[in-house]
Amino acid sequence: MYKKNIKTILPVLLVALFMTYSCKKDFLETSDPNRITEEKFWKTESDVLSAVASIYSPLRQPLYGYWGAFTGIQNINSLGEDVLTFPGGEAATMSIALFTNEARNSDSESTFSALYKAIYRANQVLANIDKVPLTNDKKTAFIAETKFLRGLCYFTLASNYGDVPLVLATAKTATDQFVPSSPVNDVYAQAILDFTDAKNGLPPTRLADDLGRATSGAAIAYMGKAYLYIKDYPKAEATLALLKTSPYNYSLTPEFSDNFTSKREFNEEAIFQWVYGPFGDQYSPWSAESANAGMYNYLPQLIGSRAAGGWFKYMPTNYFVDQFMAEQRPAGSDTKFDKRMYFTLSWKHSEYGETDVKYYGGTKTFDDLWTAAQANISKLPATVQPKKFLIQKFTNGLDNKPEGDSYWGAVPSTANNVIMRYAEVLLMHAEAAAQNNNFGAAIADLKLIRDRAGLKEKKAADLPDLSSVMAEINHQKLLEMFFEQNRWQDLKRWYTPDQLKAYLTAVGKEGAQYLRPRNYVFPIPTGELQTNNRIEQNPLWK
Amino acid sequence: MRLTILILITCLLQVSASTKAQKISLSEKNASLETIIRKIRSQTSYYFIGNTALIRKANPININVRDVSIEDALNRCFLNQPLAYSIVDKTVVIKTRTLLSLSEMMRQKLSIKGKVTDESGTSLPGASVKVEVTGETATTNTNGEFQIEVPGKDAVLLVSYVGYEVMRIKVEEGTVMNIRLKPQLRDLTEVVVVGYGTKRKSEISSAIASVNVNELSANASNNVSDALQGRVAGVAVESNSGAPGARASITIRGSSTLGSNGPLVVIDGMPFGSLDGLNPSDIQNIEVLKDAAAASIYGSRAAGGVILVTTKLGKKNSEPKIQLNGVYSSQSIPKRMSVLNGEQWTNLFNAQGGTFPAYNGTNTNWQDVIFRTAPVYKVNGDVTGGSEHFQYSLSGSYLNQQGTVEKTDFKTANFRAKSVYEKGRIKIGETFIYNRDNGRSLPAGNDQTHSVILSSLVLPPTIPVYDPSRPLGGWGGIVTGMKNLSNPLADLNAYNSQFNNSNITADVFAEVRLVDQLKYKVNAALSESRGFNNNYVFAYDDGNGKLALPSLSMGSGLSNSWLLEHTLNYDKKIGLHNISLLAGYTAQRDTTTYFNGNGNSLPNGTFNLGSATAGKNVGGEVGNVKRESLIGRVSYSYDSRYLISASIRRDGSSIFSSGYHYGVFPSVSAGWNISNEKFYSNSGILAFMSALKIRGSFGLLGNDQIGNYSTINGISNNLNFLAGNRMILGSIPSGSASPKDLKWEETKTVDAGVDATFFDNKLSLVFDWYHKTSSGVLLAVPIPLSAGISGTPTVNAGTVSNKGIELALDYANQAGDFNYRIGWNMSANRNKMTKITIGSGNQQFGDIQRAIVGSPLGSFFLIKTDGIFKSQAEIDAYKGPNGQKIQPNAAPGDLKFIDFNKDGLIDNNDQQNLGSPIPTFETGVSGNLSWKNFDLNLLVQGTFGNKIYNGGRYWLEAMNAYANLYTSVLDAWTPQNNSSNFPRFTLNDPNSNARGNSDRWLESGAFVRLKRIEVGYTLDANTLKKLNIGKVRGYLSAQNLFTFTGYKGYNPDLGNGGGPLSRGMDAGYYPLQRIISLGVNVTF
Predict the structure, then answer these.
(1) Cross-sheet strand order for the sheet of B264-267
(2) I need a labelling partner for B127 at 20 to 30 A (CA). Which of A292, B100, B506, B731 fits?
(3) What mean pLDDT do residues A459-487 have?
(4) Using CB atoms, which residue from A53, A65, A376 is nearest to B729?
(5) CB B772 within 8 A of CB B698
(6) Which tens digits make up the pLDDT trace of A196-242?
(7) pLDDT > 50? residue A65
(8) Which residues of A touch B786 (CB under 8 A)?
(9) What confidence tier does B258 reach under pLDDT thresholds 50, 70, 90?
(10) How far apart are CA A229 and CA B586, in angstroms?
(11) Which helix (H) or strand (E) holds B95?
């Protein structure tokens, strides 16, 4: 009996033991072996530097997917202008260009998203920088650089979207992530506040290794631009004037084209630019923010001629061409038209009494380019049939490469994209000064612009009142800043929606009939409306 | 190593067939039959089946025997009883005795000899042969032979064998009777595999469906999931694609989470199985555990239900049986889209501002260029057998499937070994499955927006396939002015994406009977998968994309899992009480490692990453998940009338943070076999309804199927920036981690069911009603864009409910040589997101497909269209609340959109719920018929109530780009063609007729399909006997022969491999093929 009990109990005990042994306490504990975790970050100066670099990243992305080519912050503003015709737009692009866009437009949504990505990263730096042992100087400079970038994001949001959420801290709880829109004036005010802190903490110049990172000059220029946009002309004039004095040595480059090619990067005119260079795989621009992503400038691919492998998405409008033709250079000059026109556009010079030039390393005549463009041009409605002019600015047409604008070409462009240059500062300063009745200062600024273009000086007698000064600023800015993301913002500032509709109709802008007041801003994107239950659509879009 | 030895033993062990009868000793006076049965039960492993009321009719028994066979003992007991018995395998069935006339009793006895075989002529040892009038029984020997005394030449024998129909046959004098049994249509004593054990079907109180393996057409099926489609009520099987080797997605009782909804597949006790690596012919049986009570014993990963697969094993005491099967199939894609031909295309677009060269006769049918008729070769074979103590099976298969799209193919080979050794208290066994596959997959489309399939539709027909004047391969390509479109054949040739995977799963168990019926079992399983892919891109120019020099990306991964289970099982019968207890501990660890390398600009003719001259980079990922659980189950039944079962499982998962590892998941189920009640058998209803059981269950299940390390906030890298002449590497915490308090998602299931059989078991019915509620659903929550976080943290965010009914009817009968069986199953399911528990609760997930409170997951939210404007007056009259024109940009011929929110504007706020991609009703009708040597098997499958977004039609009817279009656009509205309801042709499209978020692209996904029809012919056994062949069956099988549907894409079943929010989205997948197969099956 006893023996039988033992026989029973023993195996049961054995099993019980066996079952408990494997229940080790830490069996389920785990850590991520794939990446550094947050706990290990925010320890050294290089962590802060890499975090600040991550703020630049979404802003500078040249291409984010195929569609992103158009959504780049730098390009989207050009879409609603009176100076561009669109022979090869994709649906999302075209609807913005023709004022038929909606909240679910993927272009405006991805721009919105990229800006807030940068803001989130900036807020993280500001919230965590105290954890890192740094000298006070370095810390101040990092904070100023971060605030400059955040200010740039809010400035871009305010000028493009109007009322948007103002996110100034990292979310502590899930609920913190739902932020309602603030009025557009508050958004501008925040941008100016950030630019002010940036101006005080940033160096005026950068060492060779850091060229391209924000400077106090960039902060001042954008602060002045923000004041101009909110029509605070006295502050705009005073702020922009700072850039004309020490410690700043900005001036116009002798050659207009130096601002757009890789020959003289970081020159005396460049105030802020997105830097592009021969890094990463040239064939992987699509997957920005991944290892080996191409860091080249792909803008030429978008604009360039079909004959040189470009996608040919833009053309100048007849109105724009007429503006260039309106004023010829004085007799005896080396060119017939404005010097800037020869870099901005390509056309058959012989039809206008000059010697023809060849493009793309001497391999293409203008006729070649024009023939290649026909298939796209023929799609345009009869109302916008263009004159025989093509865009040359931002392409590689005058470089020495046959397939210069081809994605599959030898080496893509490494030209920086200068998004704030001294010429713009001069034109903004001129506008602010004129509005403050300081016509003399405005005319002095305009002289610098006109001189470089090879145009005859306009004196006070030629520009006697505000409307004539503003008309000249309008005209010069149109020519000088073509395709530099200012035109649409200027038109919005200078015209009411009704006036603008009448004006765009008069100049033959495609889609002018669809313009409504709401087109002055982009709608809050669907992706935001559906996820943020505290936000409401912009009143213009309701 | 040990495993290898075991397999070798399996192969080498000689099969000896020695039957050792169990001896019985009884000494009883005036005992009831119940007492006798109990005594016999305690001495043997025989089971008894019989109506309690019937057994109580027995006269008192006096008996005194020592060491006699069970037949001898029972013969004495049943002498002079109103009852008779028969032995079927190890089960004694007690029945009313048919009374005999005295004259019959007086006849002279004859000795009859015979042989019992199965339907294929293989001998059946251990079959029971009974003389009807006397109750005299005999059992066949190892050769299936028997000898028995009968009262006269008119005597009738009843021959039975488990799994076969009882055959009633008149004796033949003076010859060896050849008795061939037919497989049983419905086995009442069927044993069902449940989690960690088996149960008799009659004792089951939860919702478990058994799949009739005989119906599966396993030999003609290329994979198991395909064979399951339409067979089981409540089990939705959707083909994801027609690509060779493509798997189907299986959803049991609707999607309950936004993540992975697939069921847990347990093959021979290994819970990391996948139906993919399994050869359909290897399956012995499949059970689907549908409700929580049944599945909860598998706890953590059973929220999507459990599919239990038991692979074949030889029968005890049977000679080696070899089965060989060979099939040749021809596949084709029956449907072709009607696209514009070269002439139509040129004329249409040149009229719309195109400047394309005049039509020159080039008229490429790109669908015919990429689609082909492709063969499938499949062979498989197995050998099974067993002795008294050892059972085994070995099988192998090879499948070579060419794709119906050029260049795609799939090959797989499979080897399986399984054996069980049982002697005394010990039982050990193992299953070993090796599977390897390789092939070439369909490349993604090469123009950013179209799949290769869509490329074949949108590429204009005026492009020639080949153009020798073009560089890098001489492929025809688009001409200037056309949209960026790729030559699909160039892509199929240039992109060589090879995969090569192998997988070993092995399971070893040992079971010891400790005392009485207490059994301890240890089960160890291992799975190891190796994958390798090699994506080589040859230099090419397809007119859109161009690659001057080849590029290469290679990746390799290793994943392995081990599982250890200890279980204690205790079964006890005390009188009419039947108790079964289970306790166990399981631990599992899954480890994965993956790395890849890429390189560009390889010199032509080199295929090695080392030769890449640019763009070299590497990546990789490692991870492991650990889970452990304690399990317990109590089952109790009384007299086979009242059944109750309860289980509890405590699961721990490393997916969750410390403090949130564990979840406890209980379940309970109960059943009542009404037909076993006395009042039932007395009521006379028996003649109509032979059996009736009602059952109900409640249970909780957990789900942890989310990405590993979700709660750990990692650093995002490569957020780079250039300054000066250097690159500053950017990194920052990603911010997309889930909160630390993330916990188990819980699914609560209530189930009520009825099982009944009618008309002498000819008709069976299984009905279930269920309500499944998942709470704390693990959702990848889209964060507002303004939060700036890339990625979507997973949180416990909502509640999803699935309510439904399932019904399965099955009728089997025979008439002379004609045997038939017709099965019908249906399931109706209502899926609904019932609550969002984060934010304000009105969050929505997705855009045109949403998870939103009150609607099924993935419901389509689109702007409704209302025909087209026929005149400017109609446009002007369509006004909003403030009198403004709702569609100011419209022109006659444009679509009219419904201003759903009545704000006078058409925008995304007008998207309204226009249906769901989830079918509301699914059904299948199967039929098996046999007549003499012919058999016919067919399956019709139907799906109703679901919607499909036809993404392909979007591209081919949008008419806003210079690409090819469906011929339907020729009917576009024009002032002349004013009655058309097809929008006008406009490239600029100011009215957004081509907007993606309108119901213009939404279609009904309902379909009825003749899924399979198979005709077989079995050669006459007598002919084969001379050749010493057991059975030869030839068959002709057709899959996807006809589909009746209004859907305008290639095929309406798209699968939901991408998850519930992308279900029903047709982005131009690999179309399903029609397959015609010719096969032969030989058994020795």
Answers:
(1) B208-211, B283-289, B306-311, B264-267, B270-273
(2) B100
(3) 93
(4) A53
(5) no
(6) 999 999 999 999 999 999 999 999 999 999 999 999 999 999 999 99
(7) no
(8) 112, 116, 164-165, 167, 179, 528, 532, 535
(9) low
(10) 68
(11) strand B91-96
Question: φ, ψ for residue B257 (rounded to 5)?
Answer: -145, 165
B610: how many CB neighbours lie within 10 A of its CB? 10
Contact B515 A7 (CB under 8 A): yes
DSSP state at residue A126:
H
Contact (Cβ atoms closer than 8 angstroms) between residue B916 and residue B860: yes
Query: What is the number of other CB atoms lying within 10 angstroms of the CB of residue A131?
Result: 12
Strand order in the sheet with B47-49: B47-49, B91-96, B83-88
Contacts with B587 from chain A: Cβ below 8 Å: 22, 27
Report the chain B residue with the minimal C-alpha distance to residue A19: B585
The end-to-end CA distance of chain B, in Å, is: 32
Q: Do B721 and A372 touch (CB under 8 A)?
A: no
| pLDDT recorded at residue B102 | 44
Q: Is the peptide bond before A180 cis (omega within 30 degrees of 0)?
A: no
Q: Which amino acid is at A515?
A: L
How far apart CA A85 and CA A511 sit, in angstroms, is: 10
Stated as kind and residue range, the H or E segment containing B942 is strand B934-944
**Helices marked H in B890-967 — which ranges?**
951-957
Contact B712 A112 (CB under 8 A): no
Residues facing B591 on adjacent strands: B560, B624
At residue B961's C-alpha, the angle toward residues B975 and B1068, to 5°, is: 110
DSSP assignment of A493-528, as one string? HHS-HHHHHHHHHHTT-TTGGG--GGGGSPPPPHHH
pTM for the whole thing?
A: 0.77
What 3-state class would DSSP assign to B178? strand
Q: Is the peptide bond before B990 cis (omega within 30 degrees of 0)?
A: no
What number is the average pLDDT over the span B221-240? 78
Q: Beta strands B689-703 and B798-815: pairing type?
A: unpaired
| Closest to A425 (Cα-Cα) out of A242, A253, A262 | A242
Instruction: Give the amino acid at B179.
Output: I
**In this predicted model, what pLDDT tens digit does every residue of B264-283 receive, in sequence order?**
888 888 887 678 778 888 88
Checking if the pLDDT of B920 tops 60, the result is yes
Q: What angle do CA B409, B413, B419 make, to 5 degrees?
A: 160
pLDDT at B608 exceeding the cut of 90: yes
B1057 against A308, higher pLDDT: A308
Identify which of A463-467, B72-76, B251-255 has the greatest average pLDDT.
Answer: A463-467
pLDDT value for A1: 46
Quick: pLDDT tens for B319-336.
Answer: 898 999 999 999 999 899
Looking only at the bridges linking them, the beta strands covering B577-600 and B61-68 are unpaired
Q: Kindly report the number of other CB atoms within 10 A of residue B642's CB atom.
A: 16
**In this structure, which amino acid lies at residue A424?**
E
Instruction: Return the number of CB contacts < 8 Å for A and B.
Output: 298
Question: What's the pLDDT score for residue B7?
Answer: 35
Token readout for B1003 is 């279609």
Residue B451 amino acid letter: S
Task: Kindly determine whether residue A103 and residue B908, on different chains, have CB atoms separated by under 8 Å.
Answer: yes
Q: Return the SS3 of A273.
A: strand
Based on the number of CB atoms within 10 Å of its own CB, is B530 exposed (0-12), middle (13-18) or buried (19 or more)?
A: middle
- Give A542's pLDDT tier (boundaries 50, 70, 90): confident
Give strand pairing partners of B555.
B533, B596
Average pLDDT value for chain A:
88
Of A60, A91, A531, nearest to B782 by CB-CB distance is A531
The rounded distance, in Å, linking the Cα atoms of B776 and B1027 is 65
pLDDT in tens, B636-650: 999 889 999 999 989
Determine contact, residues B1047/B950, Cβ cutoff 8 Å.
yes
Q: Give the H or E element holding residue B513.
A: strand B495-513
